[in-house]
Amino acid sequence: MEDSPDLYCFLLTNILSVFSQFSANGIIALGIIILLLFLSAMISGSEIAFFSLDHNNIDEIKKNPGKTGGMVLRLIEKPKWLLSTILTANTVINIAIIILSSFVMSKLFDFSDHPLLGFFIQVILVTFLILLFAEVLPKLYAKQHAMRFAGFMSLPLLVLKNLFYPLSAILVYSTNIIDRRIARKRPNISMHELSHALDITSDHDPEDNKKFLKGIVQFGNIYAREIMKSRMDVVAVDISTPFKELKKIILESGYSRIPVYNDTFDNIEGILYIKDLLPFLEEKDDFNWQKLIRSSFYVPESKKINDLLKEFQEKKIHLAIVVDEYGGTSGIITLEDIMEEIVGEIKDEFDVEETIYSKINENTYMFEGRTLLKDFCKITDTDYAIFDNIKGEADSIAGLILEVKQDMPFKGEKVNYECFEFEVDAVDKKRIKRVKVTILKNKK
C-alpha cells in the first residue's frame, strides 16, 4: 500500500506530459490505430452480417439487387473464401493494432519501474479495446442490420479478397484437404438407404413406429410444392364478397383460416381468421369485414418443409401462401400439412372425409388426377424415390402423366412405369380428372 502514492504520481505525471512529449509520429500512429480499429470493426461485423442472411433475405436481394446486391451474391456463393478473407484481414489488422499500440505506449510511458502496470496497459487494456470496439459492438449492430451491413461491406470485401488471395487460398485448400479426409471416414448414407434400412428392421417393430421414423428421415428432403394444397382445391373468397355470402362460405368450408384475393387468386390480399370474425357475426350485411384481414406469409414452391416449420414456429403462424417462380399463387401449405409428413394423417371431429381414391381390387385403384404423388405412394406403400427419374416438376398423378406424355392424353391412354400402369379414365381439355392405376406385379 505504501507504493500507491508513487504509482498515482507516476500515472499523473505521465498523463500530464503526454501532449508535451507526443511527437508528430506518435499522433500519426494514434490516428492509424483508430482507423485500424474502425476497419477491424467493419470486417468483424461483416462476418455476422453475411452469415446471418437467410433465404428470404437472399430472395429479396435477387428481386431488388440495387448497387450492391450483385456483389453480395457473389460473396455468399463461396462462403469458404468469404470467411477466409474476413479472418485473414481481421488477423492482419489486429496484429497491426497491437504493434502500433505498443509503439505509442513506449513513446508515452516508461514502464521500467512498473512492469506489471506496463503489461496491464499494453496487453490487457489493448486486447479489451479490440474485443469491445472491434468485435462485440459491431457484431451486435450487424446482427440487427444484416442486409444493410452486408451491402455496405460488399465492395471492401471484394477488394480484400483479391488483396489477401494467396493467404486465403492456403486456408481454403487446407480446409478442403481436411474435409476430404473426414468425408472418407464418414459413412455416406443416403435418405433412400436409411428408409430401406427401416423397411428391413425386425418384424417385431410396430408398423406405426416404422412410418414415424421414415417420416423423420425424409422430412428434410420434402419441398413445399410436394405437400401443398393446389389452388384448385383451396377455399378462398374475393375481397368484394358480401358479408352474408361470406358467412355461408365459412359455414360450408369449416376452415379456420381463409385466403382473401382481389379479382384473381394470384392477387392475395391476406388471410381472414374466422376467430376474428366471431364477435361480429350479428352485424348487418353491410359490415366491413375486410378490415379484419391479416397479412399473408409467402413461401416459394422450392422451400424445404423443415425450414418452413422453423419459420412457422418463429412467426407463430399456421398457414402460408405458396408462390411459383413467376409470383403466381400455386396453393397453400399449413402447419398440419407439415406435421402429417412425420406423424401421418391428422383428423379431428370437424374433418370431412375426402375421397381421393377407391380400391377396385387387390391390384387396381381409381385415383383423382389431382392426388399428390406423396399421398399416392403412402396409399400404395411405394417408395417415393422411384419417380425421381420421370416426375420432373410434377407433384400429382396427373402431373406425372403430363410430364411423361408432354401432351394432353386422351381417355383410355395408358402410361407404364416400373410396376404401375396408369390409365386415363376421365379427362377434359384442361386437366386429367381421374386415373386408373394397376399394379402389374408385386413390388419387392
Overview features:
single chain, 444 residues, alpha+beta, CBS-domain, Uridine Diphospho-n-acetylenolpyruvylglucosamine Reductase, domain 3, 3 domains, five-stranded antiparallel beta sheet, four-stranded mixed beta sheet, 18 helices, 14% strand
Summarize the helices and strands and which ones pair or pack:
Layout: H1 4-16, H2 18-21, H3 24-51, H4 55-63, H5 69-76, H6 79-108, H7 115-144, H8 146-163, H9 165-185, H10 191-199, H11 207-219, H12 224-227, E1 229-230, E2 237-238, H13 243-253, E3 257-262, E4 264-273, H14 274-277, E5 298-300, H15 305-315, E6 319-323, E7 329-334, H16 335-343, E8 357-361, E9 364-368, H17 373-380, H18 397-405, E10 414-417, E11 420-427, E12 432-439
Parallel strand pairs: 2-3, 5-6
Antiparallel strand pairs: 1-7, 3-4, 6-7, 8-9, 9-12, 10-11, 11-12
